[in-house]
Structure formats: structure tokens, C-alpha cells
Amino acid sequence: MVDEMRLRVLGTIAVDDAPVRSGRVRRLLAVLALDPGRVVGVDRLVDDVWPGEAPVHGEAALHSLIARARRVLGAAALATRPPGYALELAADDLDATAAAGLHQRARGEVDAHARASLLDEALALWHGPAFAEFADEEPFRPVAVRLEELRRELEDARAQTDLDLGRPGDAVARLEVLVAAEPLRERRRELLVDALHRAGRPGDALAAVAAHRRVLADELGLDPGPAIRELEARVLAGEPAPTSRPPPAPAPAPAPPAPAEAANAPSAASTRANGAFAPPEASPGPALPAMIGRGSALAGVTGALGDGPVTLVGPGGVGKTTLARHVAASVGGSFPDGVVVAELATVATGDEVAPAVVAAVGAPGASGADARERVPAVLRGRRVLLVLDNAEHVVDAVAELVERLAATCPTVTVLATSREPLGVPGERVRPLPPLADDAAVALFAERASAADPTFAVTDANRDAVTEVCRRLDRLPLALELAAARMRVVSPAELAADLPVHRRFLRSPHRGGTSRHRTLHDVVDWSYRLLEERERTVLDRLGVFAGSFTRAAARAITDEPDLDAVLAALVDKSLVTASVDHAHPGPTRYALLETVRAHVRERLDEAGETAAVRRRHAEEARGFLRRTGRLAGPDADRRLAAVLAEWDELRAAVAWSSAHDPALAADLVAALVDVGEVRMTPELFAWADALLAAEVDLGTSTPWVHAVAAEGARFAGDLDRAQEHVAAGRRALAAPGDPAAAVLAFLHSEVAGFAGRGAESAEAATAAERLAVAAGDHRLRALAICCRLLAVAYDGDHDGAVAEADALDAAVRDSGDPLLRPWSVYARGEVRVERDPAAALDLVEEAVRLARAVGEQYALGVALVTVTSLRTRQGDVPGAARAAAESLEHWRGTGNRTHLWVGLRAVVELLAQAGRDDVAAELLGGLAARRSGGALFGADAARLAALRDDLAARLGAEALDRAARRGAARDDDGLVDLAREVLRAP
What tens digit of pLDDT does each residue of 210-230 get? Predict the structure, then answer.
């Protein structure tokens, strides 16, 4: 049906999938499509087609336009019926009526697979906002709103169908984008909570409820509805999630009326009021910042996606980011793996682009790996929309990245925003111009009334408002900054204060300061209105890379009355404030990007940049010292606080690495626990770079080696990890240095991965002793876990079980949420050979606990064990799900050591499922890898027996051929093979 569409109004008006060139013909067809099959009188058509500017001979002009429209659409489809004209198309020939019909059929369809197909077909009909460029105008607005609500209903129904099909993971991926687009739409929140619960993520489900409660309270002063509260209660009670929901009973669904029947329906006027395509009643909630006057631009950018990278270009403050977010919300449902937004405004150099993108994907890469290679690695095979926002200051690096993705990841669609094109092959540049006059006035009025509810555009002030918009070149950000002044000045006074000379953008080419001039003047004008102390504070706040707390601001400004100054800057729209009333925590402040750029220039001119940047870096060090180690009952909150400051830590390390390496070393050293919990790529790269510089790192040198050893161990380079451990020990300041315990623990881990069990246990014992002496309870518990695993792998299961149970009881009593996944995992892992059923229950509990607190390392190792245990139980589907998640987890983190361990579990699973050829190929590939650690104990015995079984079933020659194929694959190719077979039915 989609391929045979005659007239499209769900996006740019098109006939036979070809855009209609004439804007007037587009408008005529759009007016008639509001009431398909119904007669629209000549007078009404003239009024609607030529709003406010009807030609002198209106009827004759209409007849001429009808003739042109018939040449485009066909004479039979546009019938003359006194007293006017009617659009006569079959229901399936107009996309809006086709979508409504598919919706009705889907509501009556019992079979979930068929229902999913109908809903997908309906959603595929949208190519942009309904009625595109006319959506914000009368008479289109009511019908456009109802069609957009129909789209939301279809999206919600499609997510529900994923749940009905037993695919909660797919539903989560779909719903996270939809909820982000419309956070107040409670049905979507309810579906997301249900999907997370069914996906085995109760912690995330409860977090989704909490987020909804917070948004409702902040925005509307309301509480969640009974359905979502009931879901929350079920999750809190630990009730098992249903595997699927019974399909709804068929609802009576009359077919859309045919044109002949529609002729006897209510009049055109009443249909305009009620909507020709009205879906069931619902109340969509506001989400992203409202767009005014951008319907056509939204349709244009949306329509350009899919045919090469799209770059949305325009001057600062023109609204590129807002439009990109709306595009992502509009089309996100059509990308199976969702939307990834990489905010590049906080990166300082081109070298930071790739790590920022990897972090945005949520899959950090390994230490020592080229981050530019990590981006294709983590996106390979994913069908996503990647939004690269604010690329202008790192345009060369972004261009290189986009070219690399085009060559290696054809399923990734790129949308970039920049003040200039990227200049890459196949790029589709979409300029975003300033607003039209009417839209600029409307935006100014809306923002001004938000600042002062008594404000309105009237006949008395309209000329002054229009002049303000004209002098501000109709740039949305400039209008917002100026509109905020309506609290204290009139439009006429505002117009008089603005710069007299208009400065329009003169060149689309790179490198001209004239591109920046108009908004620069607006920001400078706002800046000059500030008091002297406000300017001083604002200049110094420009050093922050992202958002910041009041404490951090106080440390770098030295302003005694900072609260009052911050309040004034927020009030004047130069600083934004984010307050979370539902959860305790500091208010976070931020500068608009263009304001930040402006005040950094002022700071440079004053010669204060170096001094303020030093304060910033020293405050980052002070923050980490105040936060302390990630230990104790509030360890998860400490971790969240550190992650919230990551942009600032990145900026502080970058500056201090160049100007004060010892300070940079202090910052890296303080993050050693974060490296262990999150396997964060940038942290390991920072440590490697500091050590490679061969400069004095002061007393933090042993700790920097420890962080580098963490990264090398995760990357599978065990020799390099051991070298860092040895170098760190040589740099210890004294025998009692707390870093000695960390280095001993890392020695234990490296020896364990290398198969040296006795050495691992001995090093773990030493780490435990040193941790006790240093008062490091977290490290003591981790060392015990390491020792117990070494002992159990060496055959002493009974002793390990008793001690693991005691350790878990102690950790539970301590209330440390980051240690609990490890202690529960250890209890399960030491039981694997003696009591696999009990071990599985414990390890799956460790998975749940790790997910809830963001303990990435524990989550990954637990998933590998779940895969192995479910395989041995004969639960092939359950093992496949755990294996697929495990591979994505380890490849995303760049952890080669554990990735190959996870693949060994996949080999066992595939052999159990009868996929001998693929199992043999993977086994051959694993034998050729040198970064997965040694095989030993029960694991070695099982894989040896498995290879013998495969040789017996396949024959030695076939086994060798498969093994050679596996050895010839590169690392990503080997993982891709495993992923492909795990996804197969």
C-alpha cells in the first residue's frame, strides 16, 4: 500500500511520491485533503488558498489553479461538484485516510504479528509532520494536530505489540525515544515501566516511575495515575513480570468511509472543526521546546535523511539544536536501534570528538585503542540515527568521523548541526535561515509572555515588537534573550536600546567572523546591561565546559554574594538553572554555548584565562577529594556525583596535563575506583598520556600506573598491565602507601586472567592485608572476592563457599551498593561446579544488582556466567539472550579479556543447540587470540571435551577448515558472527 500512494499529506505534499513544485498547488491539494470526498465551496477555497491576499478575480484564479492541480493529480481525482470541488480518491490513495484505516484494522487484529505489520505499515506513511509547511496555519492546524495524535497512538500501540510478542527489549528501545520526546504522556511512561520490568530491569523500571513522578510534579503539580502506581507496586513487591500480555479483544472498527459515502457526511465546516482523520481522544503533553515557524524545515530535514549524511547549517542561535531534537523525536521510531545524540559543545579539541561519541552511544572503548576506530566498532551493525550536535569548532574531526562511518557503518544515519558544512562526500546540506517575520513576532510574544504573563502583542506595540525582531535578524536565541527583558522594559524602549545597524550574515563559507556577528552583538548587548560584578562572575563561569554547581562556581569566582549574582544572571537568561525538586541534590547551572564563547573572549582579553582555568582544575581536584573513594552506603551516589562532573573533569585534566602534570595526576589518581566500576576509556587514555610524557607526576605516580594497569588489563594486554603494576610499586613513596593495596589487587587480577592461580591467590592475600592496614574496606572486599575465585577455580569449593557467604553477609551489613553485586556474584561463582541451580539464582541476582547501580564490570562477568549456566541447563533461549547482551556489553566497553571469555560460553551454547559449524569456527577464532587470558580448571576441561565432540561430529578435516575460517576473521568479525547466529530464530 505504501508504494502505491497517490497523494501524501503526512510530510511534504507529494503526488506519486514526487514533491509538488508549485506552492499554491500544494496548498490547494492540502485544503481539499482536509475533507476528502466532500465538496468544498469556491468561496472557501479562495479564502483558504489565498489567505489574506485573495486575487481580484478569485473564482477565475481558482479555476486556473484547479486545472494545474489536475495535471499533477489527474482529472478524475479532482471533481467539479457545485458549488465547488471535491477530492475523490480511494481511501488507500491518500496517506492520511490509509493510516487511519490501518489503525482501525490493527485495533481489531487479534494476531500480534499481523498487528505489528499493520502498525509498521501505518507508521511508514509518515514522512514528516502532517501538512508540513502548512501545519501551523489555519485551516490545517486542527487536522494536523489530530493526525499527529494518530501517529502517537500508532507508536504507543506498536510498543505494546512488542510486549505482546514477548520482545520487551525492543519495546524499551522504542519507548525510551518516545518518552524523551513527550515526557508528560503517561501511557508511554506506563509502557516503558512495564517493558523494563519484563526485560528484567526492575531498578530501571522504578527509576522510570520516579522520573515521571518528578516531571509531573514539576510541570503540572500532579501525581502519576493509578495504572502506573499499580505497576510500581508490583515491581516493588518483587512480583515476576509477565512474559507477554494477552492480546486485546477485537474492538468494533468501522472501515473509513468511501468518498461516495462521505458525501452524505456532515458539512465541510463541521468536519474542519472535528477533524477528518481524528483518532481516539487523547491529550498529548508538551515535550521539547516548541518550534514556531519551522514546519517546513522539519519536513525538509526529515525527508533528506537516509541518502547520506545531513548537515543542518546556520548561524549560532538560529535554532539548529532544537530542530535537530525535533527531527530525532519525529523519526526516532523508524530506527530499530534508536537515536544517539552526541553533544559536542563540551569538547575542546578534535581529539575529543570520537570519545564523546563513544560515550554518547553508552559503550566506552578500551584504553590504548584509537578512539576513532572505536566509533565504527560500537556502531557497526546498528540501525541508529546519530546526531552530532554543535560540530562547528571541531568540524575537521567530525568530517573525518562521518567519512569513516560512511565507509564502515552503512546502517548508521548521521545528522549533524554546525555553522558550516562538513564538506564530506554525499553530504546533504540543509541551511536553516532566520525566522520569517510573522514567526519571529510569534516567538518573541511567546517567550516574552513566559517572562511576564501580562505581556501581549497589541496594536499599540506591534510595530515596536516587529522592529525588535528585525534588528535582531529574527534569530530565535537572540529573540529569547531580548524577550526576557520584557519584565523591565517596554518593546519601544527595547528597540531603542538595540544596536542601530543591522548586520546580516553575508557568507556561507568557513572562517568569517561575520557569520558570528549578529548573535555576537545580541550577546554583547545583553552583556553590557550587566552590573560590573555580574560581568566578572559571568566571565569566570565561562571556564566551565558543561553544567556546574554553586560550590564549584564559588570556588572559581571569589564572589561573596554569589547567590544573588547567579539569580540575576538566571533572571536575565544568560545562565540556566536546573532544579530537581523531587530528589535532593545541588542545583546545576549552565551557560548557553554562545554566551560561553562570548565571555571566554572577554576573559582572554582581561588576561585572566590561565588563572581561572587553574582555579577550575584545582576545584575539580577538591571535588574529588571531598567525594572520596567509592565506598560505603552512599557509594552509588558518590559515583553519580562524579559522573555528573565528567565534562568538568575532562576539561580540568586537559588543561592541567599541559600546564601542571602533577595536578592532572592527582585528578586521574582520584578516579581509580571509577575505572574499576565503569571501565571508562578516557580515564585510561589520560593515564597513558601522562605516563608517556615522562614528566614528574609527584606522589600520585603509583596511582596513575594503577589506572593505566586497569585499562591494559581490560584491553587484554596482560603483560603491559603487569609492567604498570611493577612500575607503580617502584614509585611507592613509603611501605604504607595506600596505592600498594590497589597495585597488589591488580597483580592478583592479572595473574588470575593469565591462569596463574596460586600467584593470584597469594597477591590477593597481600592486597587484603595491605587494604586492612590502609583502612580501605572496599579494596579488602574485592581482594577477598579475587582470592576466593582463585581458590575455587583451583578446586577448593567448600572452603570458598563458606567464606563467600560470610563476605556477602558482611557486605550486606555494610550497605555498600557497589560492592554487593560482587559479593553476590562471588557466592554464585564458587558454587558453579557443585550446585549450578543455586549458582544461577545468585549470579542472576548479581546481574540485577549491578544494573541497578551501574556497576559495569560486575554486570559483564555475571552475564558470562549466566550464559554458561543456562547452557548447561539446556535453556538455549535464555542462554542466547544473556550471551547477546554479554557480547554487546564487552565489545562496547572494549574489554577484550572478558569478550573472549564470553565467546567461549557462546561456543558451548552453539554446540548445545546443534550449530556445530559456527561453534567450530568461533573456537578456531578464539584459539588464535592472545588477549583473552589462559584457559584453566573446569573451563579448560569443558572446552577440550567440546572440541573432541565437534571433531567426532564434524570430522577432523571439517573442524580444521572451520577453525581456519575463524582464525582468519578479525576481532569484530568474530563477534559479528556470534551476534548474527544468536539473533537467528
Answer: 888 877 776 666 777 777 888
pLDDT digits (tens, 9 = 90+) for 231-267: 877 777 777 766 544 444 333 333 333 322 322 232 2
Contact 268, 35 (CB under 8 A): yes
Q: Which residue has the cell 552506603?
A: 633
Task: Give the three cell numbers for residue 875.
Answer: 535453556
Cell output for 93: 490513495
Which has the minimum average pLDDT: 43-47, 193-197, 692-696, 894-898?
894-898
Residue 372 has pLDDT above 80, yes or no: no
pLDDT one-digit tens code per residue, 419-475: 888 999 999 999 888 888 888 998 999 888 887 888 888 888 999 999 888 878 788
**According to the 3-state scheme, what is the secondary structure of 643-695?**
HHCHHHHHHHHHHHHHHCHHHHHHHHHCCHHHHHHHCCHHHHHHHHHHHHCCC
Q: How many helices (H) and strands (E) does the chain have?
A: 47, 14
Eight-state DSSP code of residue 928? T
- The C-alpha cell 558570528 sits at 516
Report the distance separating Cα 156 and Cα 178, nearest Å.
9
In three-state secondary structure terms, 16 is coil
Grid cell digits, residue 818: 557497589
Q: Which distant-in-sequence residues (6+ apart) come within 8 Å of 717 by Cβ?
A: 368, 931
Are 6 and 89 a contacting pair, CB within 8 Å?
A: yes
Highest mean pLDDT (candidates 515-524, 591-600, 708-717, 814-823):
814-823
- The span from the CA of 883 to the CA of 880, in Å, is 5
Reduced to 3 DSSP states, what percent helix, strand and coil does the chain have, rounded to the nearest 5? Answer: 65, 5, 30
Q: Which class for 537: exposed (0-12), middle (13-18), buried (19 or more C-beta within 10 A)? A: buried
DSSP notation for 138-190? TTTHHHHHHHHHHHHHHHHHHHHHHHHTT-HHHHHHHHHHHHHH-TT-HHHHH
The percent of residues in the chain predicted with pLDDT above 70, rounded, is: 88
Distance, in Å, from the CA atom of 133 to the CA atom of 136, rounded to the nearest integer, reads: 8
CA dihedral 538, 544, 545, 550 (to 10 degrees): -100
Q: Is the peptide bond before 242 cis (omega within 30 degrees of 0)?
A: no
- Cell matching residue 920: 567450530
Q: DSSP class of residue 589? A: E
Categorize the per-residue pLDDT at 958 as very low, low, confident or very high, splitting at 50, 70 and 90.
confident
All residues at 6 or more sequence positions from 620 whose CB lies less than 8 Å from its CB, including other chains: 645, 648, 649, 652, 667
At 100-112, the pLDDT tens digits run: 889 988 988 888 8
> Regarding beta strands 413-418 and 385-389, do their DSSP bridges make them parallel or antiparallel, or are they unpaired?
parallel
Give the strand pairing for 310-313 and 428-431.
Answer: parallel
Q: How many residues does the chain have?
A: 985
Cell of 79: 471533481
CA 319 to chain centre: 20
Cβ proximity of 341 and 455 under 8 Å: no
**Cell matching residue 852:** 541497578
Q: The sheet that has 548-549: what strands, in order across it?
A: 548-549, 588-591, 575-578
- CB atoms under 10 Å from CB of 734, counted, come to 7
Answer yes or no: are the C-beta atoms of 708 and 700 closer than 8 Å.
no
If one compares 726 and 488, the residue with the highest pLDDT of the two is 726
Q: Which three cell numbers, joined as nine digits, stand for 267?
A: 458539512
Cell for 189?
A: 511512561
Q: Are 792 and 829 in contact (CB under 8 A)?
A: yes
Q: How far, in Å, CA of 84 to CA of 104, rounded?
A: 31
CA angle (262, 266, 268) in 5-degree steps:
90
User: CA 129 to CA 94: how far, in whole Å?
Assistant: 15
861: left (phi over 0), alpha (psi -120 to 50) or beta: alpha
Number of neighbouring beta carbons within 10 Å of residue 634 = 15
